[in-house]
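agent: user wants the full assembly modeled, not chains individually. Plan: 1) parse entity lines 2) check alphabet per entity 3) run joint structure prediction 4) return tokens. Steps 1-2 passed, two entities, 220 residues total. Proceeding.
--- entities ---
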Amino acid sequence: GQSLEQPSEVTAVEGAIVQMNCTYQTSGFYGLSWYQQHDGGAPTFLSYNALDGLEETGRFSSFLSRSDSYGYLLLQELQMKDSASYFCAVSNTDKLIFGTGTRLQVFP
Amino acid sequence: NAGVTQTPKFRILKIGQSMTLQCTQDMNHNYMYWYRQDPGMGLKLIYYSVGAGITDKGEVPNGYNVSRSTTEDFPLRLELAAPSQTSVYFCASSYSPDRERHFGDGTRLSIL
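--- prediction returned ---
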């Protein structure tokens, strides 16, 4: 079977740095993706890691350790607009399986 | 560039009714997907397609059917609506299975 675990909620203040973790169990693994979803909106793609290490895109960084079946999304210089749900997702052959998501609340 | 377009945006059905959720994409992507998202939860894969004429079941296919006669269109059919199918349905497409999914805006479906 496949499973992904994420903390349900994280809170932080504007300007801070926050890390959201994801652990997974899956048979067959291509890579780990991260998606952002604002309330009432559609998921939007943030990053993809196929190999171990850190990928950086502006204020967002994503890390993968295949040996530990673990990844995280790092958000720097938090802004109010970053308040949203963040989902990790595992690519498994033709499928993309999502975790239950971490809800990030950013306070002034 | 429209991307992935879903219709309708909202719908209320009675138990036992049937309906088709429409999804079309203009990016010439071979891979298309249907997900459902219950409140406060992640997305569950219902069905997916790797190209015209080819479909396969995802995690939660029961109560749904799909077809893929063209590259652009991937409709989802509910034959006998049940309250458990109340959810938000998202269609997505991608160039390949290891690339980003492009999502439509979703269809909010209530079954009463």
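agent: reporting back. Residues 38 and 87 of chain B are 5 Å apart (CA to CA). The two ends of chain B are 36 Å apart (CA to CA).
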